[in-house]
Design a protein that fits this description.
The protein is an alpha/beta fold. Helix content is 17%, strand content 37%. It is built from 5 helices and 12 strands. It has a 6-stranded mixed beta sheet with strand order 1-2-3-6-7-8. The model has no long low-confidence stretch (mean pLDDT 89).
């Protein structure tokens, strides 16, 4: 827990930094009394022949479970498997009750869950430049050109700090 009176926005990459796929980031709003978080993206990667018998891999999100962090929502930036393919696992393991994303991304995740579970979750469809308040966070999505339909970058704000998350990126040598 934060021992000072400082309020801050902390970002932890849980996956996706050094590989294509498994995109998952934890945005924490930390203040002296609490730690609240958003999980942004929950992607998978298909490993291929190097892992026989493994269908896909998901980012390691144990950090979010082990640190007594209140996860306020899962935010999905697009419908590509590298960003939302593992959302159903994260929803189940982290007891997510609010999922935010494009209409297409939300529909694809709902198809992987049971009907009763879909009804127990608040589904929030966002559109470009629509500001959403989720506890201590302000989320503003922006249309973003990628290889999939309805892709978004998101501006996430907490306690005066801002992070512009663009989902996928690649830096060539």
């Amino acid at each position: 827990m934060n021992k000072t009176n400082t309020k801050l926005l902390q970002i932890t990459a849980l996956g996706g930094l050094h590989e294509y796929g498994k995109n998952m980031y934890l945005f924490e709003a930390i203040n002296p009394d609490s730690r609240k978080a958003l999980i942004v993206d929950a992607g998978i990667i298909f490993p291929g022949l190097e892992y026989p018998g493994v269908d896909y891999k998901l980012a390691d999100y144990k950090y979010a479970l082990s640190n007594k962090i209140a996860i306020e929502a899962l935010v999905l930036t697009n419908m590509h498997e590298a960003h939302s393919g593992g959302a159903h696992h994260v929803i189940n393991k982290c007891n997510i009750k609010k999922v935010i994303g494009s209409k297409l991304a939300l529909q694809l995740v709902k198809a992987k869950l049971g009907e009763a579970q879909v009804k127990s979750i608040e589904w929030i469809n966002f559109e470009s430049r629509q500001e959403l308040i989720v506890d201590d966070f302000k989320i503003t999505p922006f249309t973003f050109a990628t290889c999939t339909h309805e892709s978004y970058a998101v501006l996430i704000e907490a306690y005066g700090s801002k992070v512009f998350y663009t989902s996928s990126f690649k830096i060539d040598q």
